[in-house]
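Please review this one.

:::
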Amino acid sequence: MAYKILCIDGGGIRGVIPARILMEIEKRTGKPLAETFDLIAGTSTGGLLTLALTLARRDGKPRYSAADLLDFYFENGERIFSASVGYKLYSISGLLHEKYPVEGLEAVLYEAMGNARLKDALTEVIVTSYDIENRMAWFFRSWRARNDPNYDFPVVQVARATSAAPTYFQPIQIETDEGTEHYALVDGGVFANNPSMCAYTEALTHGVAPKDIMMVSVGTGTVGQIPGHGISFEKAADWGVLGWGVPIFKVVFQSLGDTVEYQLKGLLPKERYFRLQPILYYAEEAMDKVDLVNMHHLEKDAEAFIELNAGMLDQIAEALTG
């Protein structure tokens, strides 16, 4: 029997794209994602989706559908990526301090997730973050939370940690319940913006055979080979720290994701590995472009991908329900 894994990339407000694609998968299967996948993994905005999709209501059913989470981005995007004029002056538009204060993000997370704990996830989850003090990758795992109360963190803290994108939001420091250890965490996108290989490895460590793994990996959109979106040699030839400051993030995030995709295409046969990564023809790639026009463009890019890949989505639905 297949062990089914869902992985969701990071990308800020571009989470609109996986939310829309996952809405389509739920529509085609007729089931919540938490009931069709054995493991869901996410980074940054993908981590938020992972946690929200596996939150339980009092009756034990999923609290949110993918359609609910699509609405979540439209309703809360501007609250999350918001800074007053005074704050912009204080931070010099993000040059001296993080670009956005955390209050908006934290308020939205608490409203959506409340007092839920990691151990209560409806299916196994793994959410990435990075410990900047100990210089190590950090993984929030539901099974570890169930087995060790000291690592059963509030879901709000997990969401805050995985979405603490450097330069956008300040890091978060979390403590174990006993207060004996603390961790200074930032967005897992610094090492695994595409968390698929992390999820694949995690499955193996829990005894799942490679031949049994089926994976659906959903991206947040890429400019790919679209002319004009790359960095010309002439432009980059004389760049120093200031010149590379912002572009290097885009280069690292895309290259890490492309590397993971290349690796998994070699490890899993095509009938058991599905990479769903739309091209951004209409929307901008900025992770904090939260005006309604751009968010509708993100949804439009997702819908164009859905239309062009209807056959693959049917194949995924059949594999999930068969």
Q: What stands out?
A: The chain has 15 helices and eight strands. The mean pLDDT is 92.
